[in-house]
Specification:
Helix content is about 75%, strand content about 0%. The protein is an all-alpha fold and about 200 residues long.
């Protein structure tokens, strides 16, 4: 009975932490004018998740703010690179609509595949960015993680699909459980071994 009580407490504790994390992500994304706040806020989320997994309990807003400030420029360089690549792929996708038959499926599927690779690489840059790495190093490390664990992509896609399904049926969880779950999946499935950042 005691073990059951401990498990319930642990689950409730993590649900509360994840809810706080998502609210912090929303707040700091808005602070960056949305456009320039998404990537620094995401890197800060990853850093805080790693602290919690290491059984450390920094003060969430203060820790989040320190990582946000430190990663702001590098994270937005990665964001702009990702934005440019996705824009080019979007133009390519539009061009593919002019084709018919096998050429359409070839161009369309190839573009979607490349777009997914770009998004996944961007997602994995949050690991090195949370440790204070520059944009170029973060991109290299993200590609390395993606190549090192290609099989884990299926688990990530399955988890992402499950999250979308939950949001579809319970849209009220979106403000509390959305981006944080995606970042948690990336941290669990793609380990980045380096010492956790300390609060400034």
């Amino acid at each position: 009975m005691k073990d059951t009580g401990n498990l319930i407490y642990l689950v409730c504790d993590w649900l509360m932490r994840l809810a706080i994390l998502n609210l912090l992500w929303i707040t700091f994304t808005l602070m960056g004018g949305v456009f320039f706040g998404i990537f620094p806020a995401s890197a800060s989320c990853v850093a805080l998740l790693k602290e919690w997994m290491a059984e450390r309990r920094p003060h969430p807003p203060a820790f989040f703010w320190n990582i946000y400030k430190r990663s702001f420029l590098s994270a937005n360089v990665v964001f702009l690179c990702t934005f440019v690549l996705l824009t080019l792929l979007g133009l390519n996708l539009y061009t593919s609509l002019q084709f018919t038959g096998v050429w359409f499926y070839l161009f369309f599927s190839g573009t979607v595949f490349l777009g997914g690779g770009v998004l996944m690489t961007a997602l994995l840059t949050f690991h090195p960015l949370s440790h204070g790495m520059k944009a170029k190093e973060a991109l290299k490390n993200a590609v390395h993680l993606l190549l090192l664990y290609p099989g884990r992509l299926l688990s990530f896609i399955a988890g992402f699909a499950l999250l979308l399904l939950c949001i579809r049926f319970i849209p009220g969880i979106l403000p509390l459980y959305s981006v944080n779950i995606i970042l948690l999946l990336s941290v669990l499935l793609f380990p980045f071994k380096q010492e956790s950042p300390k609060p400034v």
